[in-house]
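ugh finaly. both done.
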Amino acid sequence: MDVLSAGHEQVVFCSDTESGLKAVIAIHSTALGPALGGTRFYPYASEEAAVADALRLSAAMSYKNSLAGLDLGGGKAVIIGDPRTQKTEALLRAYGRFVETLGGRYLTACDVGTYNADLDVVARETRFAHGRSEAYGGCGDSSVLTAYGVFQGMRAAAQHCWGTPSLEGRTVAVAGVGKVGSWLAGHLVDDGADVVVTDVDPAAVERLRVRHPGVRAVADTAELIRTPHDVYAPCALGGALDPVTVAELPSRIVCGGANNQLATPEVAEQLRGRGILYAPDYLVNAGGVIQVEDERHGFSFARAQSKASGIFEVALRVFRAADEERVSPAVAADRLAEERIRSVGRLATIRLPH
């Protein structure tokens, strides 16, 4: 997936002097439906870096929503700033007003730096904010089903590699135990895996170990990569898989919750050359968007979890296609997503505001 030639439909720059809001909303595609994607609140080094991230993330959302079988296109928003010091009601409401001006072409939700309570505030200004708190009829924490979907993708990878959909007796290295990584670690422990973790936040590691005392922790990602393991699960920020890291990985499988794990598209082929099965991130971490999408229909956790269980079969289909076509799973997943966009996409790919 070449982001620079991905043909984004619309990029909106948002600025509100009163609240200090500076944001970018990128709509990649509305071929399958309104563009759904979270809002990332992050202290980008420059506006250019923020735009690049919005373009990359929104394109990935088109592919993620397509593979998940949803009638949704792909979009993403980024708010430039430090959420710990700059997030205010005024800023979130100003952002909500910008979302509302798009008339439903873009549906927003949570991402890094934003939470259900933030979307409750955004929703005071727009009809198109989802991933709200349960108190307001929303789906609650979408990291729950994000982690569940990653676990289903990992089970499928285990089935493809070892002939059994279980991680029992396998060592799984989880890099990042925040919202998604901590839930994933819990699933792995329950499945009988030996789990070793790291995180830049020692408190996150301690919280996990309180719940699961058998989990081992190491100092940093470099040490985690050197630790013998069967499965590597990147669950922090993107770009975790670069040529240097991949050259050192002892894993047989890479499957994690982070978005945009490949530093460059060529890394997918490097993984394949080393005999490491890569589960494309936008395939396996779609549980969260499935959870958020279900909110639009009157949220049912059981229904959303049932949909997220389908990630297992889609992942197996991608792995088989990659073998048959002699390409990386990243290429196979792209082809499957693009085929659905072509065959199912609306005749009028540009969706007008409601």
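ok and the 2nd:
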Amino acid sequence: MSLWTAGEAARATGGRATGDWTAAGVSIDSRTLEPGDLFVALTAARDGHDFVAQALERGAAAAMVSRVPEGVPEDAPLLVVADVQGGLEALGAAARERTGAKVVAVTGSVGKTSTKEMLRTVCAGQGRAHASVASYNNHWGVPLTLARMPADTDYAVIEIGMNAPGEIAPLAAQARPDVALVTTVAPAHLEAFGSLEGIAAEKASIAEGLAPGGTAVLHGDLDVSPILEAAARAAGAGRVITFGEAPRNHHRLLRATISDTTTVAEARAWRTPLLYKVRAPGRHFALNGLAVLAAAQALGLDRALAIADLGRWAPVSGRGARELIRLDAVESDLAIELIDESYNANPASMAAALEVLAGARVRDGVGRKAAGRRIAYLGDMKELGPEAPEMHAALAAHPAMQRVNVVHTVGPLARRLHEALPPERRGRHAATAAEMAAAVRRDLDAGDVVMVKGSLSTGLAAVVDAVRKLGHAAPQSASGDD
């Protein structure tokens, strides 16, 4: 498959191509590069120019560079541009310009990756779909996703994130979405924004990139929803669709029936009744699914097919995926259920995850202990500003905690939660994830359900791995996210 020829890439970037090459993909990492990819030598933690020779040896079709690296011959297949980041953005802009795809851009404090994946699943059922990989949602992730978009794409789903003020609008301008979706606004990155209103204003700026006549799909139940709606209208949105549980919303969730592995939701799209399913437990998944159906309507997708395909979506590792960890190769009842939420955390997503754990079904009489338990390993929630210690301590009083048997904590902020928990619920505290992971074996027993959640930098993936190593992991038929 040809994604970019040398001539197309040179015209798109204003660069100079050496050789007559054709690229089938675009990569920024020489370690994961596929043969035929265009390697983009970005300068981040390390200068990508240092890895051009390695990329070419691994089969790269060419490399985008701002200079010919040392040890690379002048006649090597290259795309020489003035600035590599600018070249990647130009390549992404050209990809967006040449496609007739309808584009959805997704942002939000919680749930943007799972909502993006729901949309990918729904769109793929009705055309050729393209979407961001993992959480490629920053200054290089968005243009990279666009640059990888085939010209014959029918639907594209672009995730847009932020860490500081002023980041979302330029990325939205690159994506130029037909639909802009904001999942929710919650305390996250408070250090950078100072207030929930500041976060809302930044999230709302996604509407500034809307194509003429585009649609904004917004959470309508928040205290800051008026900020979102006013910004969308000021940006010229042709239509604003709100979703939520309040009667004022165009897409309104009426009821969510949550089982151990599934959520069945009843809703209305104005006067039209909706019944849909998500293969993950949690009211937040029902709301995100409703946002997806609102976006699907704005895209002109067939609603019945969209509902059917939404029912086939399941979360990915680190964002609520559920696994059965079999402790015995023969006795299938001797197992632990793992809910992996280790990718990220803020107060809103932590509360949602605790509700999922509280509703999980344990199994009694199969382990050393008579009753199965709900056990949480909770790590620091980062970037919450000066109120972070109090936000961690407040989790101890969350209603879902009443159904959690033991809470183990990791990190200096999570220590405040540890101290606030009642003695009967207070588990171990560790300064690091590695320290916590080393003693996981003695914490757990057959019949338990264990959830692991914290900000990525806390490193709780090590705890997830330690739980997995207790046995042979078997994915559940249905699962849970962030």
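summary for the 2nd one i guess: Confidence is low (pLDDT under 50) at residues 477-482.
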